[in-house]
Amino acid sequence: MKLNELTISEAQAGLRSKKFTAVELTQACLNRIKERNKELNAFITVCEELALMEAAIADKRLVQGKALPLTGIPFAVKDAICTAGVRSTGAAKILDNYVPPFNATVIEKIRTQGGILLGKNNCDAFGHGASNENSMYGPVKNPRDLKKVAGGSSGGSAAAVADNMCLFAIAEDTGGSIRQPASFCGVVGMRPSYGRNSRFGIMPMASSFDTVGPITKTVADMAIVMQVIAGKDSLDATTVSEVVPDYNVEIKKDLEGLRVGVPKEYFEVDGMDKEVRKIIENQIKNLEKQGAEIINVSLPLTKYAIAVYYVLVPSEVSSNLGRLDGVRYGVRAEGKDLLDLYSNSRAQGFPEEVKRRILIGTYALSAGYYDAYYKKAQQVRTLIRLDFDRVFSDVDVLITPTSPFPSFGLGEKSSDPIQLYLADILVSPAASAGIPAISVPAGETKSGLPVGLQIMGSRLNEGLIMRVANYIKR
Amino acid sequence: MSLSIEEVRKIAKLARIKLTPAEEKRHADTISTVLNFVNTLNEVDTQGVEPTAQVTGLEDVTREDVTKICPYKKELLAQMPLISANLLKVPAVFGDSEDVI
Q1: Is the complex ipTM higher than 0.90?
Q2: pLDDT tens string A28-46
Q3: In B, which residues are within 8 Å of A240 by CB distance?
Q4: CATH topology of domain A3-250
């Protein structure tokens, strides 16, 4: 087995027992990136020199027996998350030259614990998309089939982990951006509860939805990374002070007495692929054999979650992206006056979908429309939350497909925004409610495309959903 | 409902994004489709329902209002598109006079 194909736990063991060095492990990942990135386009920036330098420092620590949890483990970061001294574009040309002077808190934590930054992953610009076709640096291809999308918006991160270019990746999930690409590429991806992980230093998309989470090869690896990054941060006032449990212990507990809810609406959405449905139903039967109790439940507002999302998110986007105007940082376009400078910088620096969302948000928040759109959507959001609260009094977790279908063809949905928005129909409700949800590989279609199974839990129950995910066998 | 080209021009101006005539047409079409789609929310009875603005339940999170020294002064200046003697240079805000800093 090649070093870049190892999981985090395997690599930790190998590094500590001196079977290989951090420099060798990092070089194996860099070689894989060199070999495959032209085809997959999973990285926008690769920081080879920095990575090898940090790996050499990690090797010194290992020799001294002072290894930290992630010492010598190479990882990649979505380009919409700030990394000190390493270009962070958000996959939009308006930040083509932006080099953040600081790390996002989660990145700071990982680097402090010894993680080796390999580079920055391609994504839909500022997280706007479900296919990674809205990047101004070109689409990401699915490692399983180069004619198919990697999913989005964190397509580069999911493809990089699936293709063994890194051992894990850090990405961002506003309405499904970690889980959906993880399911399309056959890896594990988790959106934590809103407030569990700090968002300081991520490029904001929709502040009341945005979360940061890992993409890993296994559930055990997910627990390792979450242990490092979870917790309160004085730089993000939305983080909560509840104690972070020992996830490595949590995931090893058994399933006896566990109540698994199966919400029928998630299996009845338009376009539900028969093979996907079958794979998920079989996995649910397997859980029953392992001691879980299966309970059919109903979440009747599921079908409205995407409509809620596409009012509230563009509204928050239109406000959050107001800061990008070519004045203080990023790429400035020429203009005959200040107004012209703003309008030209934004015209040239944003792709079509980002412009569309800013325009929708500007419209929804404008005088006379606020109550009809924004307030109405916020009220339905309340009802979606209450729907989840109600079922979580009867069940411990909910199991659904992550996506109604496996990866689709490049260009297949890109001309119709609604089609692409609906790709997130099963991942968006958890985002509205702020609850944790994980996507774990559950099988493959006959044509060899990965299918992801989603497990949702009540707020701050990351340990529990990871435990259930740990029982899903491919 | 459908959004007219004039309405798209108006919101694009508010949003500070210059659009080409082809973009104006495309956004009028696609945004109209999106608005029709989100109008399905009107099927849901929300009378008396409190709107959700955040999901943590946290209230009044504050910190001390004290100044801190910024350790990144040099790096932040390096990000600026145009500087003059450590100051950001921008076009004049009022009138069409010389660039100001």
Answers
A1: yes
A2: 999 999 999 999 999 999 9
A3: 56, 58
A4: Amidase signature (AS) enzymes (3.90.1300)
